[in-house]
Each structure stands twice: as C-alpha cells, then as structure tokens.
Amino acid sequence: xxxxxxLQVSSSAPYxxxxxxxxxVSYSLNRPTESSNKRRCVSVQAQSRNIHSTRLGAATLxxxxxxRPSSPQPRPRELPKPENVQFDWHAHWYAVGFVRDFNSxxxxxxxxxxxxxxxxxxxxxxxxxxxDCCPHRLVPLSEGRITATGQLQCGYHGWxxxxxxxxTAIPQGGNMNNPRTCAKVYQCTVSQDLxxxxxxxxxxxxxxxNPSELPTLPEIDAGWIDSSTFRDLxxxxxxxxxxxxxxxHVPFTHHASVSxxxxxxxxxxxxxxRGPWGFAGRNERGPRxxxxxxxxxxxxxxxxxxxxxxxxxxxxxxxxxxxxxxxTTPGRCRAIVRNVFLFKSPxxxxxxxxxxxxxxxxxxxxxxxxxxxxxxxxxxLSVERGLGTKPAAxxxxxxxxxxxFVTAFRSWLQKHGGGGPWGPMDASWLQAAGPRLSKQxxxxxxxxxxxxxxxxxxxxxxxxxARQVLRHTTTALFVVAASLAAxxxxxxxxxxxxxxxxxENTVGNMGMGMGGKKLVVGTLMxxxxxxxxxxxxxxxxxxxSIRMATALGVALVAGAVxxxxxxxxxxxxxxxxxxxxxxxxxQKTTDEAIA
Length: 595
Known about the structure:
Elements: H1 20-25, E1 39-42, E2 61-64, E3 94-98, E4 108-112, E5 115-121, E6 127-131, E7 145-146, E8 152-153, E9 160-161, E10 167-169, E11 185-191, E12 194-198, H2 218-221, E13 225-233, H3 237-244, H4 250-253, E14 269-275, E15 278-283, E16 295-300, E17 304-311, E18 317-329, E19 332-343, H5 346-354, H6 357-369, H7 372-384, H8 392-395, H9 404-415, H10 427-433, H11 439-442, H12 454-494, H13 500-512, H14 519-538, H15 544-573
Antiparallel strand pairs: 1-2, 3-12, 4-5, 5-6, 6-11, 7-8, 8-9, 9-10, 11-12, 13-19, 14-15, 15-16, 16-17, 17-18, 18-19
C-alpha cells in the first residue's frame, strides 16, 4: 500500500460631531446586572453568526453575565444576482476590518459581497485574502492553520498553499501543477491600520496596489487624531448609507446621546457634484443651527461616506466623520467608523490620547443602537412599497430639501449601481435578507462587535478578572467584620480576657470544616480568623466598643467594594447586549425642538 494513502485515527481535543466626544466619555451603564444566570460562551464560526464578521482564530471562552439571544435564521446561500449592472462592485477596494482585530497566527474569515474570505498572514508578514474554499473538496480554508513555513494548510486533507495560491503539498499524492489545485487569491493590502480587500484576482505580474485607489483619509496621515471602531449591523449596506447621509434625523434619533432635539433646524442641503463615482453636497448653515459652520458631505462609491466640519475659527477644532459601509450579505453590513479630529488646544488632544479606546467603542455601540430597530424594520415596508423598482421619491414622502442627499444616493444606486450589490431591493432581496429580527437580537453586541474586537476583548477580560477579585475581597472583608463583631460581643458579655480566644477561633474552626465548592469561602474564613487575632492584639482587649466600631468600618468598606463589583457587572453586560428603550425615550429633559 502507498504510505501516502495510509489512514491514521487520532483524537484531538453623520452625527452632531462636537457632542460625539461627550457621548464617548459618558456612555450609559444601565446594562443588565449579574442577576441573570451566568453562562460560558464560545466564539463561533462566522458562517453560523447572525452577522458575518471576522473570527479571531481559535475559539476562546468568556464568562457571560447574560443569556445569549436566540439565533436568527441563517442567511440563504443562494443570493439574488443583479442584472444589467453598470457598476462593477467587485472592482473596488473595501476595508474589511482593523488589522489589530485579525489573528496573525491563524486563518480568519470574513464575508464580503456574499463571498466568504479566508484572511491570513503569510511567512513574509504579508496579509492575504483567499476565497474561503479549498479547491480539493470545497471545505473552508479558514478552518485550517498556518504552517511553520508560513503557508496555509487546509484542515481537511492537509493541502498546502503559498501566498500566490499555488498548491505546494498534497499529502495523499497528486499533480500539484494542475491549475485546478490552486486556491483563488484576491487582492489585499494594509493602509491606515485597515485591511483592504479588492475581490478580484490580480493580473499576472501585477505589483502592489496604487495607494490612490484606496478611499483613505489623508488627514490621518497628516497627524489628525483618529478615534475608530466598527460594528456589524443587521440591516443592508444601502440602508446604512441612506441613514448616514440623512442629516435631519440626528437631533431626534440621537437625542441625549450625541445631539439634542433643540438643535433641529430647517435644512437646505445642496448636491453640487454627482456622477458614477458618487455625489458631494453641502449644508451651508451647518449643524447645531449654524454654530459649527458649513458641513460638507461626500459619498464616494461604493463604500465611503465622509462628513467634514471646519470650525477652527469659531470652536477651535475640525472634524471628519467617516464611515465605510461594507456590504457583507443581503440585509447585513459592517460599519467601520472613523472620527478624526484636529484641535487647536493641546487639552483635547491629550484627553483623546489617554482615554481608553474601549470607551469609544461602547459609546459608538450606544449611538448605532439608537436607530438599529427602526432601520431594520423599515426595510420590509420599503420593499413592499416598491423601493427596488420605483424612484425613492415615489416610495418616501420627502417634501423638503433636508432629504436631498437621500435622493442623491438612491438615484446613484438605481442609475449606476444596479439597485445595490445584490440587485434591486425587491421581494427576492427581502427573502435573501431573511426574517425580521426581535429587539433582543437587534441589540446583540457580543457577536456583532466584542467577539471580533481586540480592544473590547482585552477590556472584557480585565473587567471579569477585576470582578472575581472584588467578589472574593468582599467576602473576606465581611468575614473579618463578622469575626471582629463576634470578638467584641464575647468580650462585652464575658468580661475582659474571658472567652476571647474561643471567639477568635470560632470562624477559623468553621472554615476548617468546609470543603468542596465551599473551599474558597472556608479558606477566607480561616484567613479572617488569623486577621482578627492579629487585629485583636493591636486593639485594647478591654475595649469591646472599639472592636465593634472597627467591625462596622470593615463592613462599610466591604459594602463599598460590593457596589464597585456590581458596577463592573453592569459594565460587563454592556459588552454583550444593548439596552432598550434608547436614551431619547428615557432621558428626562425639557429640551424640545418645538414648544
């Protein structure tokens, strides 16, 4: 028998920009508390997720204070195909995520334009994007591994592929020079901390991509402060872009998070440029009733929305809100958000540098959840009323100039974009997008952000560790307080020096009798007994009142620690689930747009 065929069996285990900063710092902690039953969660493959996103290599365990919402229906594999498309959606660069969020030691997966990608870092330190499909038996390459020589190995039969997609090893034997053994390789590069993919095969002998092809922000290269995050959203790419260019919704939808109803104003949005590349326009008066100056908006097809305010002269800052809208599957997309600032004063620059990035991420999640429910549910009614076949003005009632950018985007989508990445948003699109989700599913955060975010994964681990330490500390302090109180009472009733030793040893003897699940508590009680003995030596034996006062003080400290621990429990919950109702419906304020 050919040794190569022997088988072995083994076992293996566009916001109101200036107020954005405040939202980041003062995000709400009204999250579900630890009263929910705890459970452990394993990060799952992107194919089984509600929202398709990166998978950070091997699965990791995280203690969860919340029950995970039930999973929605999986997306259909058969996607609607656009017909007579003038715009080639595959001929452009898409930012699929921040480099920091991809595992450099294992294959990652991401879904772009309905195709599953295998993203990995080769032995030369270059990121690669393959179609997530082994040419042998069509299994996902992302379920494989990266070999010691820096090649991608399929986890099914061990075929190896180099960075150009050529098969370099077939353990079972076969012709590796047959073109059919090659993996499909897409163009991939890194710029401004983002990993970019152009879902087209590069021409033979093609060099690195031209930087001018990437829709990056030159201001970042110029040293502007960059506050960035991402979120996988349960609504379509087109819905996201339409919402981003809709300036008028901000004071109402995002009231009490990044704006106020009182800042609502009559809007006159002018579209001054348009074409196959997208459109550009201006709000001459600008947000906040003109306090910030003019606001310029640009949609650069297919994925960049950029809103710019230059308030250096009046407010001492300039701001760019940039969102990359990345189409993943019908009814799903990824929003990569970059808030870029230039300040005159060094104080805000310092604050941005020292502020933990996790606050930016949690604050951005709050903002995106302000409108996630009605945007998701809006899609079905829009389709039923003919958005995929009629001009937007015949489906929506838009009597003012405030919707000019919405009209411009929908016009571009129908005239140049073939109706969208999947074709028109009609009944077939709605079927591919799947059933509408519940509020709990729409507000889910762990799979749509935390599981794939290096910043939040690190912060979550620290919060969980701090909670464990504080929980044990609280128990120990209460044990010490109880022991001191027992000693004080024994001294007061028995007289000076009588019964003191027995009282001190009572807690220690109880601790020695504990075992199994109560081992930790027993150990703490024994430790508490020793601490009490030490403190009793420092305190006058004839002063039970002093011992009782000390016990009360220790109990108060224990209570304070317990409050901090509960606060951390709420913070931990914010990594898993958003809250409802949104701030606009819960904040008590007299701030209104109309008296």
